């Protein structure tokens, strides 16, 4: 279906370049070249809270999952930087909490645009040619049908991807397959500047025409709709990598698509390719003149190209790692795409991305003549455009992909079925949605040095809690730090210890062990009375009742 000669001589719309054909199973896309495609969303660990050992372990386990895939497989890892949701609208029952929330809303909106990242992992598998499948069928007897069974191929693809994702689930905080509507919405977000949900049609065919809603103009500076596209491609890599090496991209304050495509290789193909690379670099150690001199004088040349020798040794080390099944090999293409209606702003965004990437010792190139091919190669499922060589190990790939994520908190407080308790700000331009509840449990402990703001945080939590219907405030306070906030909201404030109360009746004293020896008070019989006698004998001051 990618071959259009039967219908017209040249492609004339964006739909002609897209690889997607039909939705054939839950979350499974059939591409025009016969490949199957499936996408999962995930969120990796936060670098600010994860230890170095944890990150090394995560990348090692991800490498273990990726190296199991061979030729015919491709993975697309994409990070989308999108505008964060706006400040929530809630009704507060009192003037004090409403004024505080109004000030917080103004501060949130005046601090500039807020962005958060979404992460997607797409698996693409191209089944073997029919000739290979037909030869494989000769090895079996008693099959119900001969030839290629497409349903069996699809079931095999679903089973294999489920197994790989189960390996990923063990070390990712969040990972799940996308449903049908979520899959179409994600694919639409990669080819459109409009953020909207896409419903599944009754006949989920011709997805290329269904999802393309903006015209694409090629050239040195492509345009998608009214927005100018700018694409940056990584063409050179550092000599060593570490987990989350490009995590700084997660803190940029503008929308972008950071896509990493890996076309995986079987072990046999990878060995053949690395052997060829090693032989080429080994041959470059000595020039032709040096070789002729060695033959004429029968003496070995002492001067060799050290750079070529080091690269030959590096290729030999890669062969050793491949031979022990520590890593796999893949053709990796990493691109970052930005857009804006103003071409100058789009170019400025690209310069900021280039600054971050080159600051990590990568070599990158703003695309010009190859701009359209580079953008097409970043689309999930498009494994033919902008293929970069030489190969890269799956461990280096695990270091490069957008694995880490700045955690922005849950979108909703599911216990109250409402917005989070309050909005804060974390690294870069990412907002933080603060919510106390995990399920229906809201236990919270706040620890910090003296004067760090623990009491202010508690007062803010109490004020923002008034956004929920039928909320009430009960404050047991020592020192009066929350007194003003509680009384302004009409809450119930209690002076713990009586340091601010004029009379004993207004104060509250907590003595949980005062009547521990009273069986009627405890209601649990002789064992409690025995414990009470022991406590009275050994710690009388702890249970004494003041007059």
UniProtKB/TrEMBL annotation:
Q: Which InterPro entries match?
A: P-loop_NTPase (IPR027417), T4SS_component (IPR051162)
**Organism, per UniProt?**
Bradyrhizobium elkanii
Q: Where on the tree of life does the source sit, at the highest rank?
A: Bacteria
What's the protein name? Type IV secretion system protein VirB4
